[in-house]
Amino acid sequence: MRIEPLNKTFGAKIYELSIPLLEAEELKAIYDLWLQYCLLIFPNQNLTNEEQIKFAKNFGNLEFDLSPISNVRGDGSIRDANDDDIVKSLRGNMEWHHDSTYMPIQAKGAVFTAHLVPSSGGETGWVDMRSAYNDLSPSMKEKISGLSAYHSYEWSQKERFGHKDPKVSEFNSYGFDIDPKPLRPLVKTHAETGEKCLTIGRHINKIPGMSDIEAQMLARELEEFACSSEERVFHHKWTEGDAVIWDNRCLMHQACMWDLSEGRIMYHSRIEGDPIEEAASNYL
Does pTM top 0.90 for this prediction? Predict the structure, then answer.
């Protein structure tokens, strides 16, 4: 195994191994590297769906085993770029976010694989929210200390991207119907490393004690600050066969636009968060 750290505050590429052939000791080493680097990229793995699920389960129970992230239908045709709810969900994913902050339990992490990539664009980006918190001014740290935000997928997706009634749509409305909306601190402590990090992103729409506009402006200010340093932002240009795993507790991520007349097929396995450590405060 050869480790090539990214020239960032996080992330590494891992070479000279085959994920399906990893043994218990090697998997433990990979887990430790994941906690250290937060993002691990494994080029040229070409995992089957079954191999992806098996690998993801080494990092915890799964929130769901496998979900296609794709603008390609099962028959190979390309979805309508403007009026298809699946594509609208892909457009939503192009905004910075943590996975499942809108669910009672936030996801621990995710495994992602590339099966078909467009000729250009379609990258996935990550930003280090540990470094972002550490670099905040003392006054901003004081301002957000003790603040929590409600995270709503119904607001971030349905209201802004105009999803149809789920009963008449292929989109499965995952997360739309969660009530009450989960309440999460803006600053959390990583359960395994003890590091403080920001938990923000596109699903924030309300902060108790603030107007909705004030809450969304604060969330946007924190996001813009987090993304303002090249050292803590990385966008991966996919090659078919790549596999990655990231730590959702301390990284935000986003998809990037591509020519939606071209197909892009990715598969996502989401790792379930600890039912206590990752629970929203109003679900404890």
Answer: yes
